[in-house]
């Protein structure tokens, strides 16, 4: 029996885990799977089989909403064993259109996101050990757009011997650049009501500034000003989402503070809410 067929059998067993939701079962499954592959497969096959099993277990926890109308639906090693594929469903036409337009910066963003270990399902050590690249596939109503980072690019980056501080600072710049390619965009955090658009993200001195534009025909800057503490809590709750939390980690590691800036589109009145680096560390328990 070839190792590809054995892995198919293991995938069926893992699907049973999804139904059973049993930790003991999945532990036994890992033991059985590794023994099965080690007994019958080559070293290369063992590595790929181990990775495929790990990814199948991660995929069993899905679907997972990741914000802005995006839902991660599956993670899997492709048939040739060279690419880890992430399938993401998009239910927002505007976001999907923007994603198609910014593939180049998104590719660089994804490379550093994985390389800096800001992705929990696949660490850079795994990428280098298993010699795999990554492909992110966004799906919207039968349409697809793809971002791919081959293993070669991860290997080349690993050979540059960059300091962690340099890697994090470069990743922070990519986060800002990617946001600004997406703006202006309706990315209003939950609880703030309609008429709010993310206008700009910038690095200003010791601050990373998220700027929002308020349509004063629908809302008022005065409401933000009167409810500063509530708005601050809402913004931080939104920042604690699975993806944004990693942004906070990068901001903290780069020794930056956080600022939310609100601007009225007619009056041009503004309100700024700040979170210090030490507060980020305390709140996030870094």
Helix-strand layout with pairing:
Elements: H1 3-20, H2 23-40, H3 43-59, E1 64-67, E2 70-77, E3 83-90, H4 93-101, H5 103-115, H6 124-130, E4 133-140, E5 143-149, H7 151-158, H8 164-182, E6 196-204, E7 207-214, H9 221-226, H10 228-239, H11 244-253, E8 257-264, E9 270-275, H12 277-284
Helix pairs in contact: 1-2, 1-3, 2-3, 5-8, 8-11, 11-12
Quick description:
This protein is α+β, with helices and mostly antiparallel strands and 286 residues long.
Major sheet details: 5 strands, mixed
Beta content comes to: 15-25%
Q: Uncertain regions: pLDDT < 50 for 5+ in a row?
A: none
The CATH class name of the largest domain reads: Alpha Beta
Overall, the morphology is globular
Count of individual helical segments: 12
Rounded Rg: 22 Å
Integer count of domains: 3
> What are the secondary-structure elements, in order, as H or E?
HHHEEEHHHEEHHEEHHHEEH
Instruction: Name the helicity range.
Output: 40-55%
In the CATH hierarchy, the architecture of the largest domain is 2-Layer Sandwich
**Mean of pLDDT:** 83
CATH topology descriptor of the largest domain: GMP Synthetase, Chain A, domain 3
Number of strand elements? 9
Strand order of the largest sheet: 1-2-3-4-5
The separation of the N and C termini measures: 48 Å
Q: Structural class of the secondary elements?
A: alpha+beta
